[in-house]
Amino acid sequence: FAPWENPAEIPLIQFKNVTKKFGDFTAIDGLNLDIYAREFFALLGPSGCGKTTLMRLLAGFETPTSGQITLGGTDLAPIPPNKRAVNMMFQSYALFPHLSVADNIAFGLKRSGVGRDALQARVDEMLKLVQLGKFANRKPHQISGGQRQRVALARSLAKAPKLLLLDEPLGALDKKLRQETQFELMDIQESTGTTFVIVTHDQEEAMTVASRVAIMNHGKLEQIDTPDGIYETPNSAYVADFIGEVNLIQGRATAPHHLDWAEGEIPLNTPEQSPMDQGREYQLAIRPEKINVTAQPPEKADNLVQGQVLDIAYLGNLSTYHVKLKGGQIIKAQSANSRRLSRRRFTWEDQVYLSWAASAGVVLDK
Ligand code: ATP
Predict the structure, then answer these.
(1) CA atoms of 191 and 183, how far apart (whole Å)
(2) Which reaction does it catalyse (predicted)?
(3) DSSP designation for 163
(4) Are 157 and 164 in contact (CB under 8 A)?
């Protein structure tokens, strides 16, 4: 069982109908959310949707206007930030420049009055956890950006919080280092068993590190699911469009599995498991990689349309095609580049066929 699938598991964190207003502006709007122990939980959403506010409510830097937040079943409202088993790591790691790596990690522990031997043992353990044993005596300016990030992580885990909040923790790193660090972060989360809640602008990062992802929009949660659940079965056009690339086709149901659309003489075949109401309007979401691009029509296809290649983006292992259909609609299709084929299978203005399985589409309300 994943923690959130286990009926016996009690959530570590519960938001119960939480609203946070700033003046008459509602930043968090009647939010309900359960986060379980040992989860790596990611919050994604456009700028201003309330991600940071949600984290600040957990840390205790803000208080809900109404509703309740509990940690381990206890109402957090009367507990001040420094007494909560919650820590927050900010993007600007805010390491003390005049203190060594070890002293930076020890800082919070010292202030909470841990004895000398226990302190040393804990600092050593943390140094080992983030693989910085050799750098214990260096100052922050004598280590790399990635190493500074790990010091900050070690410092925020030193007091063994139940919950660690990470606000864009890898934002200062370049792409390659960022990707490597994502795996380290996952390893550390797993080995400590601490619950991590991460806010990131990087969808790929959220999908990589998180056990579950929440998509926020205007202070509300649009969908919470595993990364592949969010990607494969988005429950709204908003989510489908927010995560990865998607084609959204508008149409009207002519039968439970037939969608009449602007481009086709024949309606599209839609997935078996999502019957539609005849006469109603829907959107069909199809990921570009689910659409085959071929020079000749395939022998069998649930859905087939013809178009002309408008643009090609060569991405090494993949190429993305923008294909213009007769009626002017543009469809994105992505296909793997096989080494045996020439680099690009098609070129601009080629006439191509697009085909996809009925099961590749996701039926969404208009
Ligand atoms: P970003 O991705 O840009 O950091 P976010 O999703 O973290 O955005 P929040 O910082 O949570 O968004 O802000 C949510 C909304 O609440 C924004 O419209 C913001 O302007 C507003 N807000 C946040 N803090 C305050 C405050 N102290 N006073 C007034 N409005 C605030």
Answers:
(1) 12
(2) ATP + H2O + polyamine-[polyamine-binding protein]Side 1 = ADP + phosphate + polyamineSide 2 + [polyamine-binding protein]Side 1
(3) E
(4) yes
Query: What residues are paired with 286 via a beta bridge?
Result: 247
Walk me through the domains of the chain, giving residue ranges and CATH numbers. Answer: 3-238 (3.40.50.300), 247-365 (2.40.50.140)
The amino acid that residue 195 corresponds to is T
| Atom 21 of ligand 1: nearest residue by CA position | 27
Query: What are the strands, taking DSSP E only, across 180-314?
Result: 195-199, 212-217, 220-225, 247-255, 258-261, 268-269, 281-286, 292-294, 303-314
Looking at the CA of residue 201, tell me the nearest atom of ligand 1.
2
Phi, psi values for residue 286, rounded to 5°: -135, 125
Q: Is the CB of 69 under 6 A from ligand 1?
A: no
Any residues with CB less than 8 A from the CB of 54 and at least 6 apart, and which?
15, 28, 31, 43, 216
The one-letter amino acid at 45: G
Task: Using CA atoms of 315, 319, 324, 326 in order, give the dihedral in degrees to the nearest 10.
Answer: 180
Q: What is the DSSP string of 169-210?
A: TTTTS-HHHHHHHHHHHHHHHHHH--EEEEE-S-HHHHHHH-
| CA distance between the termini of the chain | 35
State the greatest distance between any 2 C-alpha atoms of the chain, in Å, as a whole number.
79
Question: pLDDT tens digits for 57-94?
Answer: 999 999 999 999 999 999 999 999 989 999 998 766 78
- Among protein residues, the one with the nearest Cα to ligand 1's atom 26 is 22
Whether ligand 1 lies within 6 angstroms of the CB of 200 is answered as: no
Output the residue whose Cα is nearest ligand 1's atom 30. 22
pTM: 0.90
How far, in Å, from the CA of 312 to the mean position of ligand 1?
38
pLDDT in tens, 241-274: 999 999 999 999 999 999 999 987 789 999 999 9
Name the 3-class secondary structure at 223: strand
The number of the ligand 1 atom at minimal distance from the alpha carbon of 50 is 11
Cα–Cα–Cα angle for 285, 289, 291, nearest 5°?
70
The average confidence (pLDDT) of the chain is 92
Task: Tell which one of 53, 54, 202 to mutate to probe ligand 1, the residue whose CB is within 8 A of the most ligand atoms.
Answer: 53
